[in-house]
Amino acid sequence: MKKYIELKPEREYFFHNFKKNEALTDENVSSIFKYVKKTLKLYQYTPHMLRHTMATLLVENNAPILSIQNLLGHASSKTTDIYLHMSVQKSKKDFNMYFPSSI
């Protein structure tokens, strides 16, 4: 992803149509995703999963929730709070996995 960003760091959109110098449409992203899935045999993945993974990684790396909300285009921070809740669940799971109950 870093290499992709470095191609044209000043662009306004992450998913950018370089030929038209505008954002990719939903249909463009779907077409690209279908091609990549078929080529790499990753049939179970969707563009939404990529979006979800990005948001989760941002939360887990302490990105400000308002920044995540803006990146995802959520009108309400309550929608974005779902990712915070999931991160708390992961933290509890990690704690239980790595902290021995015998102490």
Number of domains as seen in the coordinates: 2
* Global shape: globular
Radius of gyration: 17 Å
Low-confidence sequence ranges: none
**Mean pLDDT rating:** 83
The proportion of strand residues reads under 5%
Query: In this structure, how is the largest beta sheet organized?
Result: 2 strands, antiparallel
The N- and C-terminal alpha carbons lie at a distance of 42 Å
The count of β-strands is 2
Strand order of the largest sheet: 1-2
Secondary structural class: mainly alpha
Number of helices: 5
| String of helices and strands | HEEHHHH
Helix content estimate: 55-70%
Molecular structure report:
By secondary structure, this protein is mainly alpha-helical. The protein has two domains: 1-43, no CATH class; 46-103, no CATH class. Helices cover 63% and strands 4% of the residues. The chain contains five helices and two strands. α3 packs across α5 (77-98) and α4 (65-72) packs across α5. The chain is globular.
